[in-house]
Structure formats: structure tokens, C-alpha cells
Design brief:
By secondary structure, this protein is of the alpha+beta class. The protein is 33% helix and 28% strand.
Amino acid sequence: MSDSDERTLADLVVHRLDSPPEPGFDCGRADQTSFLYERAWDDQQEIVSTTYLYYLGGMLAGYATVCVDGLLLSRRERGMRIRYESVGVLKLAQLGVDRSFQGRGLGGLIVADIVRLAREISRRAGCRYLTVDAVEEVVAWYEEGLGFKRNRLMQEHRIRLALERRRDPERLAISMRFDIRDG
């Protein structure tokens, strides 16, 4: 990584989506790119999620969509101090970094900004974790690079539901969490 590629949150200009996004963004993942253009604005107007756009040098470099959710945790996962099987969380529902900005640490900066948002929310409402449903290719990045852990009970629950609905559980994303009190 060259010096010009070393970025911090201060380098980013962040805007909450306030209209349909401008064309030109492509993160190389059809699901995430199409979500931004086909669902993000509609979902935000229906108050089911909020999308944040991240700009570098005036260019749309990435986006993150968040929503609130509940997380099932086994006794072992939640420890002795959390008495509830289900806890409130902020969910990172979508994350995309434009191809021209990939490999420069921008995804990690965006996740750090969303962790900051989760901490802000936790001061006003119960929110202990940031969660994400990660595709297999990025699970190691979330675990090793960012400190997320797999949600065992939640994943088992999702597998049972997939089987009941006659869907292939092997195609499920991996449910993961980050304890916002860490780091």
C-alpha cells in the first residue's frame, strides 16, 4: 500500500442517501451494486434501512446500509452477564466498495464508521453488537481483520429455517457479530 492509499475516516465525506444514487458505482458484486440502485432508496423511504454514501475526492467510493435487528445468542455466546437470549443489534445489511477503490482499506474504514454509529445508538437504545451476514469469501476478513465472531445459535436457526423452506443451507451467508464494547 502506498502512502497515497493510506486513508483515515477523516478523508471520507459521508452523506446519508437523500435521493436515488447517481450512476457509475460498481463494486464488482452484482447483488450489492444492484441493491444500491434498485432497493436502497425505496427501503430508506419505507424506514426499513438507511444507506450512507462514502466519497473520496468527490467520487462515490463506497456505501453501507444499516438496519436494526435482533440476535439470538446461546448462553455460551452471550456469557454470564447478558441474561437475554435475543439482544438488540445494528446490522450492516449491505457494504460495497467501488472497484476503483478496492484493496486500499476503505471497507475497513466504512465498517469502523458503522461501529461508531452503533456505539452512538447504544447510548440511546439497547444495542450491544454490530452484525453482518457475510458470504464465505469475506468471512476471514471479518474474523481476522476486523474482530467479528460467528453467531453459532443464529446460524443454526437460519439453517433450520432454510431446511423447512426446502432451500439449500450451504448457500446461506454466515451470521457474524462484533461486540461494540471491544476495541
